[in-house]
Design goal:
heterodimer, A: 247 residues, alpha/beta, Rossmann fold, 7-stranded mixed sheet, 5-stranded antiparallel sheet, 12 strands, B: 225 residues, mainly alpha, MetI-like fold, 11 helices, 0% strand
């Protein structure tokens, strides 16, 4: 397994108890708001410290309370996309993306090539000199993803990636994000409170309730268990045919 | 008109503002992150000079730095330097008095910082030093600048603690505020009024700057939504 998480953390009256395993796949982490989904991602990224347990990513122990291992967020190589995208407001799109290259790429030439490539891929080349506040929600998301991917993370974690967007944009961007995750090819975790979104983007899904993870299910199993049905929503007039009523 | 009080006031204010810029930011940064109880205690202690009468600050400083007191005595013995009644003695007074202004405005600015910016910066591998200077400080820039300017203005006008620790010697330790008092005491009303005007002009410009910075900050916040 590429990722193994087995952690506990108490924050006031809230108790987080998470057990997850994931391979090179998209794991959906689904549950109501306040159930500990974001906190789990933060623990993996190392910006929150669990009380007990361990986190192993691609054979590297990121956290182990028994062995007193707690790697700094900088050394964990996790890519975490925050709900608000967390773009640096004082930097342009290009400068934001450039910060992602500082860890791995030594020469300025190499950096410039990486930045140019990813900006081209994400359709950001024309926006290089724009500041985050001048971008649409979708452009902000692409910039944030580009900044993360250029830093070459071992895992991609998306925290409610569409919550800051209008519903019209969502479907369009969902397809973009699906493409990004697919070409990333390593472990991805998608946190969502929207079951449909989780179903469309994930390979397997773990439900979370009151700080606890339940058994990870394939999305087909999950669909059966969740008592939901799939309804196609992209019905356009051209696809509608009329049939005579049975007498 | 002898301009010594102006230049002396300016150099004292500039030096103490320079010191307080780093000291205030340093304290604000670490105390903003401290556990709640420690934060509460340190906050009270560090804000105390803001509410204490400057004469009390002056008295306490003399208790420490006076030539017969612990530090003052040691300095005199080691370096042959008296820490009081020189032009730079006033720096001790102004530094202590303006510290809370810088500390509190900087802390306010740091507390409004969106920590997710720091988290995402850490996870893409940026060092904490880089984050502090390239992300946190620019984000809090306006607040910190306002605090700096306000501290400078207060340092320029400091009277109580300064007069106790540096005294008033024309051409040596005189500042604008001590000069005004001295001129008024000796019935040189016209000259006192001139210095009052100088002081008011400087304070006016400074406060205008602070207001402009705060207005810009508000607009920036609004723009971000």
């Amino acid at each position: 397994m590429a990722l193994l998480v087995d952690i506990e953390k108490t924050l006031g009256s809230f108790h987080l108890q998470v057990q997850l395993e994931a391979g090179d796949e998209v794991l959906g982490l689904c549950g109501n708001s306040g159930c500990g989904k974001s906190l789990t991602l933060r623990c993996i990224a190392g910006v929150e410290k669990p009380d007990r347990g361990r986190i192993i990513l691609n054979g590297v122990t990121l956290f182990d309370s028994e062995k007193h291992i707690n790697l700094s967020p900088q050394k964990r190589r996790t890519g975490l996309l925050f709900q608000n995208y967390a773009l640096f407001p004082n930097m342009t799109v290009r400068q934001n993306i450039r910060t992602g290259t500082l860890r791995n790429h030594r020469t300025e030439e190499e950096r410039n090539r990486k930045i140019a490539d990813i900006m081209e891929n994400f359709g950001l080349s024309d926006l290089a000199g724009h500041y985050p506040r001048q971008l649409s929600g979708g452009q902000q998301q692409r910039t944030a993803l580009a900044r993360i991917l250029v830093s070459e993370p071992q895992i991609l974690m998306l925290d409610e990636p569409f919550s800051a967007l209008d519903s019209e944009l969502k479907f369009h961007l969902e397809a973009e994000v699906r493409e990004v995750i697919r070409s990333f090819g390593k472990t991805s975790i998608l946190v969502s409170h929207d079951r449909g979104e989780a179903y469309r983007l994930s390979d397997r899904i773990a439900m979370m309730r009151d700080g606890r993870t339940e058994k990870i299910l394939s999305k087909e199993e999950w669909l059966l268990q969740s008592n939901s049905v799939i309804i196609p929503v992209n019905v356009i007039p051209q696809n509608v045919i009329l049939v005579p009523k049975e007498s | 008109m002898d301009l010594f009080p102006l230049t002396n006031s300016l150099r004292i204010a500039l030096i103490s503002t320079f010191i307080i810029f780093f000291l205030g930011i340093f304290a604000a940064y670490y105390i903003a992150k401290a556990p709640r109880v420690l934060k509460g205690v340190l906050d009270v202690i560090l804000t105390l000079p803001l509410v204490l009468p400057p004469t009390v600050v002056g008295y306490l400083l003399l208790r420490i730095l006076g030539p017969k007191r612990v530090i003052g005595k040691w300095f005199l013995a080691m370096f042959g330097v008296k820490l009081t009644m020189t032009w730079w003695s006033a720096i001790f007074a102004t530094t202590v008095v303006i510290f809370p202004l810088m500390y509190r405005t900087a802390r306010g600015a740091f507390e409004s910082f969106d920590e997710t910016l720091a988290y995402s910066a850490q996870s893409i591998g940026l060092s904490n030093t880089y984050i502090f200077w390239h992300i946190r400080m620019p984000y809090c820039r306006q607040g910190i600048m306002a605090g700096t300017v306000l501290s400078f203005a207060r340092a320029l006008g400091e009277y109580g603690a300064t007069s106790m620790i540096a005294g008033y010697t024309p051409g040596r330790t005189a500042t604008i505020s001590t000069t005004v008092y001295q001129l008024w005491r000796t019935n040189d009303d016209a000259m006192a009024f001139r210095w009052v005007l100088v002081n008011m002009a400087i304070s006016f410009v400074v406060l205008l700057t602070v207001n402009m910075l705060e207005k810009k900050e508000r607009q920036r916040r609004k723009g971000r939504g």
